[in-house]
Structure formats: structure tokens, C-alpha cells
Amino acid sequence: MIWTIIGVSAATLTMLSFIPQIMRSYKSKHVKDLSPVMLFQLSLGVSLWIVYGLHRRDPIIIGANSVTLLTLLVLMTMYFKYGRTENKGDGPIFPKK
Amino acid sequence: MIWTIIGVSAATLTMLSFIPQIMRSYKSKHVKDLSPVMLFQLSLGVSLWIVYGLHRRDPIIIGANSVTLLTLLVLMTMYFKYGRTENKGDGPIFPKK
Prior knowledge:
Oligomer: homodimer
Order of helices and strands of chain A: HHHH
Largest sheet of chain A: none
Largest interface: A-B, 41 and 40 residues
């Protein structure tokens, strides 16, 4: 029982980990410190987890990674929406020292 | 064989997903758009995965989540190091419209 709680807590925390990032980016409208490579790499990774879960017919792998993929798609949409405009007057992404 | 490749690729991509973020933050020295709640929530989540993996004696769960935890600890250290100084003159984290 205790181990089930630990497993479910671990899965829930990691599955929903991008919700705080979505909330912060939504409030600040600033995303330039986020790595788009990280977002893309994670999306590709969890997509492959979903494919693997479908093969294994494992609803936990499919479900958890689908939720994460959904939050990553929201975050990537915000990245491109806010990132397109925010550097006008904010200086370069990699400022000189 | 193909399913093993898909599974290993999925695990590798997600396990190493914070490396691009570490590289970007290291280059730019800017972290204010990152959510510290996300970093903390993920660290707690993968820590519980490690505990769960130890209970299940599953070296894959233990190994993959240990690597992710290590990268998250590096990123959190950078967050506090760069975050402490970067807002001097850069404006507030949540600027007025």
C-alpha cells in the first residue's frame, strides 16, 4: 500500500511537472530563458514512450506520457507565441558581458 | 528488437532532456523565465521514482531517474546562482504591460 502511494505520487508529480512552468510563462509572457531543444527533445521522448506503451498495452505508460505530451505542446505553443515578440527591445538572448 | 530500440530511445531522450536547458542557461546566465516550482516538483517526483525503483529492485528505474535527478540538481544550483543577480537592472520578473 505504501509503495503504491509512493509510485502514484512519483508518477503524478513528474507527469504534471510542466504545469507550474505553463503558469509562470503565461503570467510573465517571457520564455526566452527556456531551451526549445529541451522542449522538443522531451516531446519526442514522451511520444516514443506512448508508442512503446501502445506496444506493451500498458495504460499507465500511455496515460502518463499523453498528459505530459499535452502540457509540452501547450508550452511549445506559448514558447513560439511569446518568443516571437519578446526580444524587441529586451536585448539579445545571449547578452555580451 | 525494434521495440527495444524505441524503449531505449524514449528513456534516453527523456532522461537527458535537461542537458540542453543546462547548456542554454550556462551560456546565457539568465534563468528568470524558468519555474523553480517545476524544478522542485520534478526533483521530488524523480526522487520518489528512485525510492520506488529501489523497492522494486529495478535498475532501469533507479538509473534513469538518478541521471535526471543529477541534471536537475545542476540546473537548480544554476537557477539560484544566476537568479540571485540577474534582476539588477533587468526589470521585474513580471513586468507591467
